[in-house]
TrEMBL record, chains A, B, C, D:
It comes from Pichia sorbitophila (strain ATCC MYA-4447 / BCRC 22081 / CBS 7064 / NBRC 10061 / NRRL Y-12695) (Hybrid yeast). Its cofactor is Zn(2+). Zn(2+) binds at H141, H143, H231. One of its GO terms (molecular function) is zinc ion binding. This is Methylthioribulose-1-phosphate dehydratase. Keywords: Amino-acid biosynthesis, Cytoplasm, Lyase, Metal-binding, Methionine biosynthesis, Zinc.
Amino acid sequence: MTSDKQISSHGFCTHAEFQAVKVLNDGFLSLDDPTHPANLICELCRLFYEKDWVTGTGGGISIRDVKGKNPNIVYIAPSGVQKERLKPYEMFVVELPEEKLLRSPNDCPEELTKKYKYKPSACTPLFMSCYQLRDAGACIHTHSQNAVMCSLLWEDKAEFSISHIEQIKALPLLKHNQSTGHVEKVGSMQFFDKLVIPIIENTPQEEDLTDSLQEAIKKYPNTTAVLVRRHGIYVWGEDVWKAKVYNEAIDYLLELAVKMRLANIPTVKA
Amino acid sequence: MTSDKQISSHGFCTHAEFQAVKVLNDGFLSLDDPTHPANLICELCRLFYEKDWVTGTGGGISIRDVKGKNPNIVYIAPSGVQKERLKPYEMFVVELPEEKLLRSPNDCPEELTKKYKYKPSACTPLFMSCYQLRDAGACIHTHSQNAVMCSLLWEDKAEFSISHIEQIKALPLLKHNQSTGHVEKVGSMQFFDKLVIPIIENTPQEEDLTDSLQEAIKKYPNTTAVLVRRHGIYVWGEDVWKAKVYNEAIDYLLELAVKMRLANIPTVKA
Amino acid sequence: MTSDKQISSHGFCTHAEFQAVKVLNDGFLSLDDPTHPANLICELCRLFYEKDWVTGTGGGISIRDVKGKNPNIVYIAPSGVQKERLKPYEMFVVELPEEKLLRSPNDCPEELTKKYKYKPSACTPLFMSCYQLRDAGACIHTHSQNAVMCSLLWEDKAEFSISHIEQIKALPLLKHNQSTGHVEKVGSMQFFDKLVIPIIENTPQEEDLTDSLQEAIKKYPNTTAVLVRRHGIYVWGEDVWKAKVYNEAIDYLLELAVKMRLANIPTVKA
Amino acid sequence: MTSDKQISSHGFCTHAEFQAVKVLNDGFLSLDDPTHPANLICELCRLFYEKDWVTGTGGGISIRDVKGKNPNIVYIAPSGVQKERLKPYEMFVVELPEEKLLRSPNDCPEELTKKYKYKPSACTPLFMSCYQLRDAGACIHTHSQNAVMCSLLWEDKAEFSISHIEQIKALPLLKHNQSTGHVEKVGSMQFFDKLVIPIIENTPQEEDLTDSLQEAIKKYPNTTAVLVRRHGIYVWGEDVWKAKVYNEAIDYLLELAVKMRLANIPTVKA
């Protein structure tokens, strides 16, 4: 869109916004570096919008700055905003493990926020669960119709599963290490492996999903994603690009699974 | 498209058009401000074209300048033009409640209009109904195939309904306030709420839909949209972004509903 | 794509191509004018590629310069090239009614053509039929899957038809004028009108379709399009934008018709 | 995406990367020439990502520099990277027929590679098979869902076939020349020809597909593609553009075949 093009000379900001942010001298932003987490959240939310994974104000991505000076720093988008129109200065920043608030977009000058009062994304406790329980580097939440349709076509099941599809090889082979107590990546899944993704039931409030998401994460040490019935999916990875790749591979498999199911082809090969 | 890129330095206008409009000193345009209603109509119609919500010359969006000096001013696109190629100077401007014509694109110099005689969009009386009866800030009309397919799959029904899908939470909870006589937004819909959208029958002339649209708006105080059988949908909201978000959420639900219906999954959970 | 962006400063040409074409002083090109037929063919073929209407080297558009000094001049793309990568200097130009060749891309310097020997599109006699028999201003040919699927789902029929869908109103109401012998546009189709598009059988050679296309055009004076079984569709209009709008409206209706047929909903309302 | 736009002034590189690559004085790169194989791989992988043919890190394209000084030079993308974000300096370069390594991205300065250790794409032996056995100029591998679905809908068959669809004419007519022992292109397929594409069974390791791919290539001298069950497709052509056109035409036919099969329409006309 033309107005997007107009703002491209300063990343995701207009010239005026750029000047305002520069004056802030905000250590949690770096408008000129497209690989900075605050900028990547903006870029990826636009991509996810084009792919129909986030729509309305639903869905999004949180990134932990795993390659930065302080890898405990987490960037979170605000709640209730159009994710494809996010600006880097709208991010919340918290520090793990206490989730201490280091930066709020509400501290920005009014010329930037237009007096809007931001709240962190309702997904925050769910993203935090992935950081805390799995040491994730980024976590994606989508309302993908493929995810919702699989949760409906497997309505009476607590697990979605598929095997013998090449794209499964894009997913990590995870193992619970008894000595460290951590889930560790020990390789990639194989073509003939059965990918199992737990499905949890949706709750009226997004934050109320936290308990069942954490349970599923613990009960399924091999998974890098959790489906939420009639809602969508959470996918995480070691860093932002791994999370993106896992989400793309899983959505591909969910899309294929819907087609297979409707054509009466079993998704798990006997 | 390249020619779009060529014109991006002055928003939606070529350099020559920009100069011509500047000379006009037209108080109803502001080419440099991408958030101005006349520019947003152009931007959003392009987006809606990419999303296949407007095609041919059908569909569009009208915006009331709720944050401007005069919130009674309404921007309307012309009829019979390709909506994804609209220019800001092609807009009609009227003032509520009398719908007094303040600006016509036919007053532009011929170098801009190329002698084309513009008429306001045929949707105008329908957009006006949303402004007058619901104090809407913007109103979207699409020929979305999901809307048409739902109206066909629910052919014998005067209502479309769906429940227990997360995306429903993007929609407003509306209540008729007995003391003020106005419909007011009192929050957001819940996951388990049943979204009900009335379906009215299509008429040969678009303006003849006005009566039944107004009836539906009055009969369904909780709705922020009306489906038109074998035609499309009207969606409105408190401002342009809310209308956009509501339209995206509803179209997502209509798309999902078609898939559910064809897979024999009830859209309303028992 | 980035390489497309690189060439955008001179329309659809790189800087080097632009210089080479300028030196040509070719009266049939006007690189700086995005509305020139040679540029519009490039722009629209890119759009049609994105919409999946042209793919591989199939499909395309021819434009008659109805608003130029000589409205008998017709621009035709070459055969066997990727239509989304066309350059304006690759066009053939012929003059009606004799179809006299006024310009061939093979006359360009080798630095432009890279010694490639161009032939006019195999659709040329079909495009010419629309110009000659209907005084069309532009003619579009696509391999749209919606067109092919309709020709398959209506396999035993020589006509596709649909009624009572709003989008039908985007199509022209055509009447054979007995006194002039011409087919004339007398308005727009109505919502309740039945749109009938003839389906002709495909032939091994594209040019061999000419006779049956001409027959269909004569037998169906009300149509602005002809479907070709297992092949695609030809759509024409008074000028390039009308042809584009008609093609969009018809493809929308064909897409909807496939969905309706598969859901056992009759496309013509009783 | 905005960050893509930011880097467009130097092709697919940021200004800093451009400077670093320039200093390299690397004879296998030519950042300013968009038609150079290293740049075309980047451009086409982005296109294939948008078309959903490559996703996650799967799929890609290899190009042999058939029009360069040394037509035995082959460009190969690295394994395990997001193909739509490839940079030209990340390519491996090998020389046929010994597949001698001429260039490795691992020789780039660390500021470019960020210490990442690249490996050639796991498809390399399969691409090489097409170069060696068919003298291909480029080879495309996709995980297209249409390819996977056809391999599932034809689960008990070792061949996919379709006839009497116009798009078949985009594919080459190949004949085994007894005297030279080579497969040669002798024209284009005809509308009524039956396109037959062999389907080989998938293997746990991509390189283990080599034997069965080579067998299929030898057994089916008329084919320019091989389907891999539950995996995707390999398509090659005389040069990069022919490979792209063949891939587009075949994917179009596979997409149509899925629709025909699900609608109980035979893909081969009796």
